[in-house]
Specification:
There is one protein chain. The protein has helices at about 25-60, 70-95, 105-120, 125-140, 145-190, and strands at about 5-10, 20. With about 200 residues, the chain is mainly alpha-helical. Strands 1-2 form a two-stranded antiparallel ribbon. Helix 1 runs parallel beside helix 3 (about 105-120), helix 2 (about 70-95) runs antiparallel to helix 4 (about 125-140) and helix 3 (about 105-120) packs antiparallel against helix 5 (about 145-190).
């Protein structure tokens, strides 16, 4: 149920429509949005850390006994990426605990997580795609990788960018706009103190 659906015409005696908000439904909706935004951030962080660590382990196992110095930069970058995401997660969780558990506080909480995900998606090429892909491709070049391997790796990097871009433009940015619109309505229509 979206915000507009919670509005009800409740009085036609004065020949003009009046509207009321089902505050319990609105509170539940905002709480659900807050939980959903937090869950999305958790899934993204844990997923990215898991992918980086699994890839790290695969590269390490594959290069045991290999003297190729180009095999190590991707490993180090993947490890640093995992640490970077983990530190960001700790900071985000700490910030989450500072929001009030009022209706407005829950909405601000959802907005914070939405903005956090948008910022991470927009900077994805800088902190993940470029640092991981350049050493990986340099390693393949120095080891005369097959055409099939080049195609698969380039496809994987391109796909990761497209998935992040799609999520940003089709899900995260529209979600943030809806939350901002709802916050503006709550503040301008004077529905109480937001508790």
């Amino acid at each position: 149920m979206e915000f507009e659906e919670m509005q009800k015409i409740w009085d036609n005696q004065n020949q003009r429509p009046l509207y009321a908000i089902d505050e319990d439904a609105l509170r539940r909706r905002i709480h659900a949005k807050s939980r959903k935004a937090s869950l999305a951030s958790n899934v993204n962080e844990i997923g990215l850390i898991a992918i980086s660590i699994i890839t790290f382990i695969i590269i390490v196992i594959k290069n045991i006994g290999n003297d190729n110095p180009y095999a190590y930069p991707p490993v180090i970058i993947l490890l640093l990426t995992s640490v970077y995401i983990y530190i960001g997660r700790i900071k985000r969780k700490k910030k989450e605990s500072q929001f009030d558990r009022t209706m407005l506080g829950e909405l601000d909480h959802a907005l914070y997580n939405s903005e956090y995900e948008i910022r991470r998606a927009r900077t994805f090429p800088l902190w993940y795609l470029i640092p991981v892909s350049i050493p990986a491709m340099l390693n393949m070049y120095m080891n005369d990788a097959s055409i099939t391997k080049w195609v698969l790796v380039l496809f994987a990097f391109t796909l990761s960018y497209v998935v992040v871009w799609f999520g940003l433009t089709k899900m995260q940015e529209p979600r943030k706009r809806k939350l901002e619109k709802l916050r503006e309505k709550i503040l301008t229509d004077d529905w109480g103190d937001g508790t």
